[in-house]
Design a protein that fits this description.
This protein is an alpha/beta fold. It has 3 domains: about 5-90, Arc Repressor Mutant, subunit A (Orthogonal Bundle), CATH 1.10.10; about 100-160 and about 270-300, 3-Layer(aba) Sandwich (D-Maltodextrin-Binding Protein, domain 2); about 170-260, D-Maltodextrin-Binding Protein, domain 2, CATH 3.40.190.10. The protein has 10 helices and 12 strands. The chain has helices spanning about 10-25, 25-35, 35-50, 65-90, 105-110, 115-120, 205-210, 225-235, 245-255, 285-300; strands at about 55-60, 60-65, 100-105, 130, 145-150, 160-165, 170, 190-195, 220-225, 240-245, 260, 270-275. The strands form 3 sheets. A 5-stranded mixed sheet has the order 4-3-5-12-6. Strands 9-8-10-7-11 form a 5-stranded mixed sheet, covered by helices on one side. It has a two-stranded antiparallel ribbon with strand order 1-2. Helix 1 (about 10-25) crosses helix 3 (about 35-50). The mean pLDDT is about 90. Belongs to the LysR transcriptional regulatory family. Keywords: DNA-binding, Transcription, Transcription regulation.
């Protein structure tokens, strides 16, 4: 039986419940809503009191839905999302919103930022907001229009467009005069390592082992937790890096870095993919997506 409109719970209470349900955390929901934790807790208690049922089971540092809570969340979450979408569109009042693009810190620093001036020359009326993050994002809920992510073809969302592969080769500043032809050169080199086990193709241990040089020790290792720092160190002449050739192609073409060893084969299982948040994006989003794809084709 449906309730009359006057009997519906306040939207604030439902919004608080949905925020907790999306995060399964009162602390994180309070941050999303810019409220205190106690205020969000009071909203949940008030909604439970109005409905006469428990919606959440609170444990030690954990929250779970009751059957009634899960049923309400399924409906309320969709309704709130529709309100977010429609009111977000109306709120612009016809003004152009910036196009938000997210990518990893390394990709933005090495590939996207050096090219943005070309887009601004082509589309001076389109504003871009760049969000550098190595975390997986909920594109719609976080207001992101386009994402560039390194993933496999089977994990890329439907409609994603492949941008760049991932050929890797040793690179160094030309002033060092290095050519890496055999294991005999390794003891004289400082190797710049990307300290992230998720990317073994960018770690010297894996590269040396694949060459059969795994027992050879370099003069020293310098390790970095961000890939763009690895390349910055190579540009400063501090050692030899494993360069993602598609990302650093302009640095090679300009003579700022030199490829000093043969590249490993381009990965067929993983690549950089362009992901759209909406199947039918705004015209300005489409213009940015089209430009990114064109830049990727030029750099291949």
């Amino acid at each position: 039986m449906s309730l009359q409109l006057a009997q519906l719970s306040s939207l604030d209470l439902v919004r608080g419940f949905v925020a907790v349900g999306r995060r399964m955390s009162i602390t994180l929901a309070a941050q999303d809503l810019c409220l205190t934790q106690s205020a969000v807790s009071r909203q949940i208690h008030a909604l439970e009191a109005q409905l006469g049922v428990k919606l959440l089971v609170r444990g030690y540092r954990s929250i779970a839905f009751t059957p009634e809570g899960e049923r309400l969340f399924r409906s309320a979450d969709g309704a709130i999302q529709q309100l977010q979408d429609v009111m977000g569109e109306l709120r612009t009042s016809g003004a152009l919103r910036p196009v938000t693009v997210t990518a990893s810190i390394g990709f933005i620093g090495l590939w996207l930022l050096p090219r943005l001036s070309r887009f601004q020359q082509l589309h001076p009326d389109v504003d871009i907001r760049v969000s550098a993050s190595n975390q997986i994002s909920d594109l719609r809920n976080e207001g992101i229009d386009l994402a560039i992510r390194y993933t496999s073809a089977d994990l890329a969302p439907p409609g994603s467009r492949r941008l760049l592969g991932d050929a890797v080769a040793p690179v160094a500043h030309p002033s060092l005069g290095i050519e890496l032809r055999s294991a005999a050169e390794i003891p004289n080199l400082t190797l710049l390592d990307f300290d992230d086990p998720r990317y073994p193709q960018l770690q010297w241990g894996e590269w040396l082992a694949a060459k059969g040089w795994g027992e050879t020790k370099p003069r020293a290792f310098l390790r970095f937790n961000q890939y763009d720092l690895v390349i910055q160190a190579a540009l400063a002449g501090q050692g030899v890096a494993l360069g993602r050739l598609e990302l650093i192609r302009p640095l090679i073409d300009e003579g700022r870095l030199a490829v000093i060893g043969p590249p490993e084969g381009d990965s067929v299982s993983h690549a950089y993919w362009l992901i759209r948040a909406e199947e039918r994006p705004r015209p300005e989003v489409l213009s940015v997506a089209t430009w990114i794809e064109a830049e990727a084709r030029e750099g291949r």
